[in-house]
Each structure stands twice: as structure tokens, then as C-alpha cells.
Amino acid sequence: MHKEIVGCAASLSENDLTTSQGYQSFRVQRIKQSSTSIIEDNIIEETPIALSYNGISHAVMMATPTDIAYLAKGFSLSEAIIPNLSYLYDLEINHYEEGIEVQMQIATQAFVELKQHKRTMEGRTGCGLCGIENLQQLNRPLKKLAPANPAWLDTLTAVYHHIKNHQPITQATGAAHAAAWVVNGEIIATFEDVGRHNALDKLLGYLLTEQRDTTEGFVFMTSRASYELVRKCTQCNIRLLATISAPTTQAIKLANESGLTLASFCREDGYVVYAQPQSI
């Protein structure tokens, strides 16, 4: 077993967060037209990561084993398990042959509320609602957001052109989603994962660990815009979510309810605003 102890008071260095590059190389047979060759192919890693709070297992998700501490923190915040990082007292990462376990100690008040709303979850790569127990949990109250800065929309095309240079796992494997933090048109940080919701949690964990002002920029993602992405952004006071691919009806509904500006099909020649068109 390999163990990492990650303090919660100080900022995290890159070495604290991961021992994996996010992919492994395999020898494979490539058949192209009439020729056959043996090549080295980079394959994205997908690892079971278990999250526990005060000794009680809460969730198991399939994720890329990079930036694990940010993933755990971002999940805890975006799922409203803790209201802020002062409620997180300790975080320990244990590496086993079967996968990775993240043990977190949280404040008693947060743990009592977590037990009252206990969810048994097995998050999957394409997870959307991540195992909620009943439909009533879909109606968890949303934060109400102030309008996004309309000037942010003018930077979407440039961000689309530059984000590929911030995706090392995707460049190696072609299989990762990315979530980027953009301020004044500049990509400040990017996190990748086999699951889009995991990539976003890593980014949110980074933003809140580094005490970034989440109202000063926006999130750009190389995925579709789905229900859980909108809810996670709203929970962390993100005012604009921009995605390369299409939105879902639930994503649009929640964005309109919360006041989040949702722009999708962000490509080289434009974008479509699906929620809060008054932001334009």
C-alpha cells in the first residue's frame, strides 16, 4: 500500500496530488488499409477511487488517477457535503492494488448532515446523476447567481483554439475530458479526466484550495453540458459554463433556474447561448 498525507491548511503542490501521468502505454496491432504494424499506444487510465468521510464509505467512482486531492475536495464542495474547505480537517490518500481510497475527516456538523442525506453511489465514467436515491433529490435548492460578464462570451472562440495546448492526456490518448478555468480570456488552469464530472471536480477543488475568486472567470469544458456540470458550477458560484458539445434539456433548465449562463457548441466560428441570453 502506498500512502499520501495531504494537509488541508496549506496549498497543494503538484507532487502532493498525483503519482500518475494519467495514461499507460500498450503494444497493439494496427491494421490500416492493407498493412499491419505493431505500435505503442497510450491508453488513458481509469481507476476506482473511493471517497470516505469520517471512516464511512460514501462513493466509488471511476476516474483518471491524477490530481486526486483536488478531485476529492471538488467533489465534497460541489456535492454540498461541506460548505467550504474549513470543514475539511484532514485528507489521506491510500493506494491499493484494487484502487485508491481517499479518507477525509470533516466537521461533525457536516458529517451529521451527510448521514441524514446518505447516498449509496457507484459513479461510472458516463455518470450523470451518480446514484441518487429518489427523484426528489433532483430538486435540491440551487444557488442564485449574479449575471455573467458579457465580455466573457467574446473570448470563447480564442479559448477553443488554445485549449488543445493545455491537454497533455488528450494529446497522448485522445480520450480525456478537460475542464479549464479562464480569466480575461486566458486559460489559467486545466484538469483532465476520463469522466467530465471528475475533470470539473478537480478544477473546482483547485480553485477553492487556491482561494481563487470564482466570480472573476468562467469554466470551459471539452464535453457536452449536462445536468451535474451545471449543478456543480452553480454550487461553487461559477457564472458561465461553456462547452464544446451540446447541452441537455436538464442542463438548460437548471441553468435558467440558477442564473448561470450556458454556452455550448463553442467552436472556431462561434457558439450558441442556451441559458441567460440577456448576458449577451
Span from first to last CA?
52 Å
Q: Beta fraction of the residues?
A: 25-35%
Largest beta sheet, briefly? 6 strands, mixed
Strand order of the largest sheet: 1-6-7-4-5-8
> What is the gyration radius calculated from CA atoms?
19 Å
What structural class do the secondary elements suggest?
alpha/beta
Low-pLDDT residue intervals, each spanning 5 or more residues: 9-18, 119-136
What general outline do the C-alpha atoms trace? Answer: flat
As a percent range, the share of helical residues equals 25-40%
Number of helices: 8
**What is the mean pLDDT?**
87
Write the H/E string, N to C.
Answer: EHEEEEHEEHEHHEEHEHEHEE
Number of strands: 14
Question: Can you offer a commentary on this structure?
Answer:
There is one protein chain. By secondary structure, the protein is of the alpha/beta class. Helix content is 25%, strand content 34%. The protein has 8 helices and 14 strands. The chain has a 6-stranded mixed β-sheet with strand order 1-6-7-4-5-8. A 6-stranded mixed β-sheet has the order 10-9-11-12-13-14. β12, α8 (249-258) and β13 form a beta-alpha-beta unit. It is flat. The N and C termini lie far apart (52 Å).
Topology of helices and strands:
Layout: E1 2-6, H1 14-17, E2 23-32, E3 35-44, E4 47-53, E5 56-63, H2 68-78, E6 88-95, E7 100-106, H3 108-116, E8 121-123, H4 156-163, H5 168-173, E9 177-183, E10 186-193, H6 196-209, E11 218-221, H7 227-235, E12 240-243, H8 249-258, E13 261-267, E14 270-275
Helix pairs in contact: 2-6, 6-7, 7-8
